[in-house]
Amino acid sequence: MSLIVQKFGGTSVGSIEKIRDAAKRVLEYYNQGHEMVVVLSAMSGQTDYLIRLAKEMAEDPDPRELDVLMSTGEQVSVALFAMAIRSLGYEARSLLGFQVAIHTDTLFGRARIHDIETGRIKNELNNHRIVTVAGFQGLDTNGNITTLGRGGSDTTAVALAAALNADVCEIFTDVDGVYTTDPHICPAATKMDAISYDEMLEMASLGAKVLEIRSVECAKKYNVPIHVRSTFKKERGTMVIGETRDMEKVPVSGVAYDKNEARITIRKVRDRPGTAAKIFRPVFEAGVVVDMIVQNTSEEGQTDLTFTIPKPDFQKTMELVRQVGEEIGAERVLGDEDIAKISVIGVGMRSHAGVAQKMFEVLARENINIMMISTSEIKVSCIIDQKYTELAVRVLHHAFGLDNGQEVGV
Ligand code: ADP
Ligand code: ASP
Ligand code: MG
């Protein structure tokens, strides 16, 4: 007998029929003698709908109330799912984040899980019940409801699997597993049998939303094997596990894109100690997560500074940077929301030279201009014009030998 945590994403529970089908799937495991904990997302489109409602009510909705509102999406799913199981003749009980309890810090909209109490879930399991747990939500130290950030139900599932010492965490979604790139924009994408935590971390942080980044961090930290697979098919999906030797053979194992960043440039500021500190202080204080930063000397004693941030923070950050710009006598502040970050990823890159060069050449052949570049041991990222995203993903995927059935080689 194993303890299995399964998570069903929004599209997998998008209708009454789909919830019933997913419940039947959970029961197949239960009938094989496994203990089942099922983490659920809101029905597809619900979280976006709730955010729209909040924005209609207030331009800048109160973060506490926004979390109270957003968490209701998952409340609907766990209740309906438990009803589905009961209507099929089995025992189930739903639990919200605070009932479990899933303790988090106090950062509304982006809370981090501190610890999870397991007593109540174990009690229900001992009573042979299937437990449905609301993803994406927790309880902070002041007794408030918090949410974990978009895609956060993945994190709830993996953190629960770690806390309960589950045998596996299965993530059911609308694709068959983790692919070399998003199969919805690159039909030649290849499904991987396995991917290392490190590569999955890079893919997730670079935009592959199939797993939320914190869920992968948590899986790596507590060594939780994740199985990403399709809700609608029986076949095995992709295992996310520790590194294997095979993975090091290929320099590039995936291509990711992220359309959710924006770029800000502050032109002609004095090139002297303290300038960057002045510009970024208010940005960091506002809790904006800056991604790439590039500084260029433009003319004698002057410098341009360009950086990228999450798109939802664009307006707020532009305001802050305009203010500092005036204070420090910058020539002007420019913003651009129509950008995309394209990345090639691979743990094998460490031992293979030339990946960056090849990436630049492939993009140049398509006349795609590179605006910013950043590299690490296992990835190269370029900022490009957003309208070339799909093209860039496809040509890079092909150039690095990742197309389905293609011979791999650099
Ligand atoms: P869920 O609602 O089940 O959490 P998400 O929409 O969050 O599902 O994540 C699944 C989506 O991730 C897929 O539909 C696919 O478009 C996208 N995706 C992006 N990159 C990849 C990749 N490398 N492999 C698989 N899916 C990917
Ligand atoms: N419902 C939340 C979202 O849409 C969490 C999740 O689905 O993982 O972001
Ligand atoms: Mg998701």
Helix proportion range: 25-40%
Largest beta sheet: strand ordering: 3-6-2-1-9-11-12-10
* Range of strand content: 25-35%
Secondary structure: number of strands? 20
Helix-strand makeup class: alpha/beta
How far from one another are the termini?
45 Å
Low-confidence stretches: none
Average pLDDT rating? 94
Number of H/I helices = 14
Largest sheet: 8 strands, mixed
Bound molecules: adenosine-5'-diphosphate, aspartic acid, magnesium ion
The geometry reads as globular
Give a quick summary of the entry.
The chain has 410 residues and is an alpha/beta fold. It contains 14 helices and 20 strands. It starts with a strand and ends in an 11-residue tail after the last helix.
Primary descriptors:
410 residues; alpha/beta; 4-stranded antiparallel sheet; 14 helices; 26% strand; binds adenosine-5'-diphosphate; binds aspartic acid; binds magnesium ion
Architecture overview:
It is a single chain. The protein is of the alpha/beta class. 36% of the residues lie in helices and 26% in strands. Helix 11 (275-285) packs antiparallel against helix 12 (314-328). The model has no long low-confidence stretch (mean pLDDT 94). Bound molecules: adenosine-5'-diphosphate, aspartic acid and magnesium ion.
